[in-house]
Amino acid sequence: MYPVLSAIGLLAVYALIRIPLNKRRAHDDVQSLPGPASSIASWIWGHELLTFQHAATQMYCVWARSFGGLFKIKGALFHPDIIVATDHAAVHHIFAHSDLYVKSPAFRPPIKNLLGEGLVWSEGEDWHRQRKILSPAFSEGAVKGMTSVIFECAERLETRLTNLILDSKDGASLNIVHYISACTLDIIGAVALSHSFSAQSARTEAHSDAAQISASWADHVNMGLKPISFFVPIIVRAIPAIAKAPLPLMQTQGVCKTIVRRLGQKILEREKVTASVEKSNGDARQEEELPQPKGKDIISILLRSRRLGKDSLSDEQVLDNISTFAMVGHETTAGSLTFTLWELARNPAIQDRLRAEILSCGRDLSYDDIQKLEFLDAVVKEGLRLHPASPQTERLALEDDVIPLSNPVTGIGGAFRIRKGQVIHIPFQAMNTNPQVWGPTAAVFDPSRWLQARDPATFPSGWSGLLTFCDGPRNCIGWRLAVLEFKIILATVVRSIILVDTGVHVEEKISPTLQPVVGDKGGLLPLRLKLV
Ligand code: HEM
């Protein structure tokens, strides 16, 4: 009884302080924005609760159709109204000024626990430096150099699925998420660390690194679907100090981070021993003249750049970035890819057309073949358009600013005055499915739309007119790698395997990336597979 009464008392005190502060802002532009009715908002949890209760960005899609490219919603825990932006000029402006519009500081402690102080976590000067040093590891040439490793992992997936089908009577029914995610984990292990997680090996044991990463991610996904995962970040946003409290929920270290750091540490030590042996053998050459780490993997590229340049990452930053890439680089690609396979299962004619195009190149596909396949390219873009692994983001304005608008808002005009401290939600998925841009079939999986001539002026800024990889200086550093993985895995699977829809109802939820949910279980997308 006492904890409940104490919580109610605390909430009342908080509301008494917060509500008058919000009223002081009553004259700014936010008040003139349209938005959903207050009557459908929860008194304590605002409209934000509705967004959590519905599928992924469903509410934002519905509201954007009704209220246009800039509207407001009631924030939870008496937070001042939140702006939701899908207006092209506004979103472009926000992402172009990444020093002025930052990720919410309240979420940095949990990101630090899960991923470390790498690129996703860093801000300001620290971020600029890290991004500059890390970018060459994701250049076109560097990613092209990863092709053979990606093919090897994709072919292992093809063999694994083929064997399951051969062992079954009338096609294999399975959770495709499990298999795709094991494949992308093997890829990221190989390209980031030259390490084989053997996630796709039949002999992988229950306590292996791969099994531990997979189990902890599954727990994370299913925890994210529970109401507590909605309430905790909102409470942290209201009282940021809670994130530093010694509560297990707040201090959980990412299993992936711990494992990848351990592996990365070994590579760093090996590299230091090599350098010191060369020195003690009387090698009088300068550090930068010594033989460089040879691997094409990301950690070797970083170590090479460290030997050559004065301005480099510390050991800790190298390790934190490798664990960041391992985590955000494998589940994101796996998520969008899984949904694309599901779309192909539900659209057999599209699947047949794709297979015919892939088979026309023969079985030994090269990097150049993959780049030439127009319909494959269209399927990849359509999958990434409808199912962006990271369907929305949040930014906080650090200063007062004026945001340009593509479409003037009634009562405000073509520019919007924003106040320091304003929180802005940007639902990528709502932008990617805006009927004003993509036409009346915006929500339909139709790759052929990418083969028609388009007027670039009607599309938002971003890769191929999509917001899937965000935009501006803080766009996804791994987008080239993600697109190449997507193409190679799709081509390798579809050439041998027919994907069949099971008819099971699958819902899309955010937890923390876009997840297929069946009933109340996340990370589940059943498909039936047959041999071509
Ligand atoms: C389909 C796959 C992927 C999608 C849809 C995706 C999407 C995104 C999005 C939307 C952001 C911006 C997030 C925000 O600011 O709120 C982002 C950032 C980032 N992504 Fe990806 N990503 C994918 C794959 C990858 C891969 C393969 C890697 C690396 C191996 C990667 C590494 C990163 C990093 C490090 C950032 C932070 C960049 C910065 O702040 O400078 N991502 N990604």
User: What is the CATH third-level topology name of the largest domain?
Assistant: Cytochrome p450
**Overall radius of gyration:** 24 Å
Task: Identify every distinct bound molecule in the structure, by name, code or SMILES.
Answer: protoporphyrin IX containing FE
Low-confidence stretches: none
Task: Briefly characterize the structure.
With 532 residues, the chain is an alpha+beta fold. The chain is built from 21 helices and 13 strands. The protein has helices at residues 2-24, 48-53, 58-67, 88-96, 108-115, 124-134, 140-144, 147-167, 176-193, 209-224, 227-238, 248-251, 255-280, 298-308, 315-346, 348-359, 367-372, 374-386, 428-432, 435-438, 479-496, and strands spanning 70-73, 82-85, 101-102, 172-175, 392-397, 401-409, 413-418, 423-427, 497-501, 507-510, 514-518, 521-522, 526-531.
Task: Report on the architecture of this protein.
This protein is an alpha+beta fold and 532 residues long. The chain contains 21 helices and 13 strands. The strands form four sheets. Strands 1-2-8-5-3 form a five-stranded mixed beta sheet. Helix 8 runs parallel beside helix 21 (479-496). Protoporphyrin IX containing FE binds next to helix 15 and helix 21.
